[in-house]
Design goal:
The chain has 2 domains: about 140 residues, Rossmann fold (3-Layer(aba) Sandwich), CATH 3.40.50.620; about 120 residues, Riboflavin kinase-like (Elongation Factor Tu (Ef-tu), domain 3, Beta Barrel). Helix content is about 30%, strand content about 25%. It contains 9 helices and 13 strands. The strands form 3 sheets. A 6-stranded antiparallel barrel has the order 8-9-12-11-10-13. A 5-stranded parallel sheet has the order 3-2-1-4-5, with helices on both faces. A hairpin with a 2-residue loop joins strand 10 and strand 11. Helix 4 crosses helix 5 and helix 6 packs antiparallel against helix 7.
Amino acid sequence: MTEKTVLLGLFDGLHRGHMSAVSELLKHKGERIVFTFDSLSMSTKGERGLLMTDEKKRETLLKFGADEVISRDFNLLRETSAEEFVDRILDKELHALRVICGENFRFGKGAKAGAKELKELCAAKNIEAVAVPTVFDGGEAISTTRIRKLIEGGEISEANRLLGYEYGFEGEIIHGDRIGTSMGIKTLNIGFDTVRALPKKGVYASRVKLSEGSFAGVTNIGTRPTVHEDGKIVIETHLIDFDGDIYGERAEVALAEFLREEKRFGSLEELRAAVAGDISKVKESLKL
């Protein structure tokens, strides 16, 4: 039978702390499995905003080298005891030879068991259990909660540093109201998943990946108070030095730096001048 190593955890965001555990998984030969949960079935995570969709999480884990990603509805296992989880899931279903988790991992009904109990229960089944130490930065643990607060507070550069990549959104480019086009500043609108953590309203330097290549952009997240009063939040991006027709395509927008707060301008001319200034800042920031 193929040797199987199973990594346990939610891994919302796959930040630098999570990647320490993923790196441990990749050290081992044989079949490498990630056992996780559907993020929205973890109520507190779903209510607060996800750093990464389950689809993106699976795609990223497979890209890094996992052979399989198993994602279960947490509600179906909520009443499962720690003993039953090890016996039924890890031993009888997955046939794990080795199990990896973070040192703060909790499991079993009421989250009563941790890494210590996991090691003890696994030992009885001749399964090795490895607890990966928590990764600290600046004297504080790198965590999803910490990063989410930074994103929601507009501290995107610091959030990106802890993530290990630039936070952003991906989705289909949709038609907007063409106000930017009428001002001579063409923008693309991207639909976003409302379960994601939404950054602080404002203007950001961004990098946009399209099928045509990668481009620098100025991304506004907010209600566009100068031209709208409906309070609807949109994400719109002006691509620098690009003027193609890309409606209907998919785009990935990664936020690199917070530039300024969103504000209401007295006229479209003032708005146009502000956007021109934003473009200059992005060119300087991203060394264009």
